[in-house]
TrEMBL record:
Pfam families: Acetyltransf_3. This is [SSU ribosomal protein S5P]-alanine acetyltransferase. PROSITE patterns: GNAT. Keywords: Acyltransferase, Ribonucleoprotein, Ribosomal protein, Transferase. Residues 11-179 form the N-acetyltransferase domain. Belongs to the acetyltransferase family. RimJ subfamily. The keyword Ribonucleoprotein applies. SUPFAM superfamilies: Acyl-CoA N-acyltransferases (Nat) (SSF55729).
Length: 180
């Protein structure tokens, strides 16, 4: 099911395509210092178009199998953020894991909150999921604000949950129940 939503007059949230590989490489390179504190350690080749093409190919395969929704925030030809609903499980669980980032120059403007709200609506009304989950580092107040403004509630704390910036890091866990 194709997805697109205008967030502002110049930023669109839309489906990831294979044509985004070059713009993704540029975005990751441009935001490398900004993202390294929030993401797994990345090898240098991650920031190349070839590596991003491999990532996009894998994510498009997962999307085709109903296992994920992979989106970009785009401004013209530039990628200025990512929003993913990964590890979608159907059956009795009907759930997915939310992840996102935004360009360092666009933080604090409410764009990611708008993007998350758009994806929440799609997950509820389009995908018919029951629940979404997200985790943040305990000191990532900006991400926690995005989640709470989008309706998520804190439901747990996971010690040494993900390997971020070269270390196992604790995470605060959030969830949003979409339907009963």
């Amino acid at each position: 099911m194709p997805f697109a939503a205008a967030l502002t007059h110049d930023v669109v949230l839309r489906d990831l395509t294979i044509d985004d590989a070059g713009a993704l490489a540029d975005a990751y390179a441009r935001n490398r210092a900004h993202l390294e504190q929030w993401e797994p350690a990345r090898p240098d080749d991650f920031f190349t178009e070839a590596a991003q093409k491999r990532v996009v190919d894998l994510q498009l395969e997962q999307a085709a199998g109903g296992k994920g929704v992979f989106l970009v925030l785009a401004s013209g030809d530039a990628v200025v953020g990512r929003l993913n609903l990964a590890d979608i499980v159907h059956g009795a669980f009907q759930s997915g894991n939310l992840g996102y980032w935004i360009d360092a120059g666009l933080t604090g403007r409410g764009l990611m909150t708008l993007a998350v709200r758009s994806l929440v609506d799609h997950a509820r009304d389009g995908l018919r999921l029951h629940r979404l989950q997200a985790g943040t580092l305990p000191y990532n107040r900006a991400s926690q604000t995005v989640l709470t403004r989008a309706g998520f509630e804190r439901f747990g704390y996971a010690p040494r949950y993900l390997h971020i910036a070269g270390e196992w890091r604790d995470h605060v866990l959030y969830q949003l129940i979409l339907r009963d």
